Amino acid sequence: MELTVDQKKTYAYTGGRPFNPELPTVVFIHGAQCDHSVWGLQSRYFAHHGFSVLAVDLPGHGRSEGPLLPTVERMADWLMQLLDAAGVDDAALVGHSMGSLISLEAASRRPERVARIALIGTAVPMPVSEALLDAAKNDEAKAEAMINVWSHGARGAIGGGTVPGLWLAGAGIRLMERAAPGVLFNDLNACNAYARGPEAAAQVQCPALLLLGSRDQMTSPRGAQKFAGSLKDSSIVTIEGSGHALMAEYPDAVLDALREFIQR
Amino acid sequence: MSKPKPFAFNFDTLSLHAGQQPDPQFGARAAPIYLTTSFVFKDADQAASLFNMERAGHVYSRISNPTNAVLEERIAALEGGAGAIAVASGQAAMHLAVCTLMGAGGHIVASRALYGGSHNLLEYTLPRFGVETTFVDPRDIDAWRAAIRPNTRLLFGETLGNPGLDVLDIPRVAEIAHAAGLPLMVDSTFTTPYLMRPFDLGADLLFHSATKFLGGHGVAIGGLLVDGGTFDWEKSGKFPTLTEPYAGFHGMDFAEESTVAAFLLRARREGLRDFGACMSPMTAFQLLQGMETLPLRMQRHIDNTRRIVAHLAAHPAVESVSYPELESHPDHALAKQLLPKGCGSVFSFVLKGGTSGGKLAGRKFIETLRVFSHLANVGDAKSLVIHPASTTHFRMSDEALRAAGIHEGTVRLSIGLEDANDLIEDLNSGLRAAQKA
Q: What is the ipTM of this complex?
């Protein structure tokens, strides 16, 4: 559905059902250079099982109007404006990669509005290598290729995935290629610059799930495991064999972990 | 500067591995043949979720099957696409693509240098369902542009046209298509991804008659429809089947559901469901066996073809040879640019008349051959031959034959994997007999 957030046209996928703010709401927040479609095999299930779903396109991504937001903090504030626009008081936030940082930051800023956070493919802090940042700035195709190779475990790189006939590595690079010039550097730079992790963690009041891929080369599970200790109420689920693109490589395992956590 | 490689593994590795993880239950290394019509649900919730696309998985083998899925991923990986759908034949793949993109009132601009089956579908059958086609000379770039109408929904050609091996200028035709908000689809049967990857050149959709080089063994008929994932259906605004709610599937807007795989979703969820031209898992397995050796076989096809083309081009009993690697071919320069690894292994040549005319010379030539098989197929591991004037085109007048670019002495060869010396010796014996005819 379309919403107006900060006077800008904003898109959120509602999982194939009309959005109803009276139901408990789950907000799905994608990572760098992506859009709502990365959540297809998680968000649609929740929308048909008693929840209302907003799988957002962040400003300047997918179908949402720009401008891009340059920091994780600004994106977290925007997310709260989105909840206002949708008429939602509080929601569970499910974020992937950059989206996990946005979820964390939002939960720290507005604890009364965030019921739970699920941080998928996360690391706090989330440093981005100089080589990747440089490529994102000067040669996007090169940066996208690097990310696509680093984002997949065996299921992504070789195949044998859950969706019949979908070649994950091919679909992954095509989704990144859809983004407008400048999106990738903006997003990676925002991840790299986000320094409020420890402070934010201390302010989070709600339960947190860290959902990690054992073969994640973008956000190493070791970093996330260390960070989990700084949250008051956290649990970790590690998906064996998955790379960074967990929702695509192991959609059922991600969904089952989210169901367990959100319906708890 | 070439584009950086976005995949972890290279072509030869993907030919063997793409789309398959070793069987988790028994550890089978080869892709198992899931010869079953249907799949047991874990529980009622999973069943409902699969039907409503909340979860992915297999329900019924007309829609999807694990063995077929390996094949689908493998061709998508080799082509550098987003995904693929396996169907009963190359013809079924083309039909599925057209019917996913348009209904009655739609229009296609197609190369006139097409396989006869494709031509039949476009020229005679689809008009009965309200879809019309304008055929253009594939080498006439302006003709492609001029033939586009407001109701055009697709541009279509073969990577190497039939029968003259016209090389489709994919970058330029794709540019014309995209400027009009339309996708370009190509039939890649003659080239396979080993010789050309059309998505890298600008095509948006492609299909294969997997019956030919992909299988390579001539034992299975199948088609593969591949989506590059490149075309922005939403931005084009001309494809309501992909960008508006579909009452036939939960009111789903496929482009909203999947940014890059909307076409594949609709083609599978509607096209396979309703038209039902599915591939047998046994066929998928057989085609996978062939695809494992695709790079090795294609290189051998090309090596043998180059030797035979050179031999025939210099032979006194041969009038002419049509192969894009020869300077005499009208697309020689374009072939060097788009097909540097080779121009396939199917080509035609013209016999010199012999004493009693071309048709008899052609017949004599074919009847003398011992290694080449006389049949109506191409892309087999075994070398094949056909004489169009006495077989596929025998009802046509001499004038009509010439208009189709076929002479009385035209012979079409599909060069296989045998020892090239044996093939050359076989051809020599046929040429001697033809000269005496």
A: 0.97
